[in-house]
Amino acid sequence: MDSKTANALDRYLTCPPDEEEYVDDTPRDWEGNEIHSYSQVYELTFMTTYIDPVTKALTTSTKLAVATDESGSLPDCLTEYGMENLANFRAYSGEEWLADWRRNADESRRNF
Fold first, then answer.
1. What is the helix, strand, coil percentage profile of the chain, to 5?
2. Which of 19, 59, 84, 109 is least enclosed, having the fewest CB within 10 Å?
3. What is the reported pTM?
4. pLDDT on residue 19
C-alpha cells in the first residue's frame, strides 16, 4: 500500500465521512490551488528529523508536497519546507500526473 492510500485509509478510519457529506476530491497543489492542465507537476518529499525535548526521542516527520509550473510555485514550496529537507523529487507532465492521481483516487474509492 502506498503512502497516499495509507493516509486516506487512516483519515477514513479515524473520521469517516457522513453519507451525505460532500467530499472534495479535486487535485490540489501544496498551496491549495486546483491542478488543471499544467505542463509540469512536481512531487516533492520533505523529511525533517529532530529530538523531542520532552521525551528525548529522535522523531522523523515526512511531508509530501505537490507543486506546479505555475509562476513561483516550485521555488516557494522549496523555501517553505526547506531545500535541506528535500528527500525526493519527481517531475511529471501534467497529464501524466493527473492520470496517475485519478487512478489512485479511483482505487481508494474502490477499497472502501
1. 40, 30, 35
2. 19
3. 0.62
4. 57
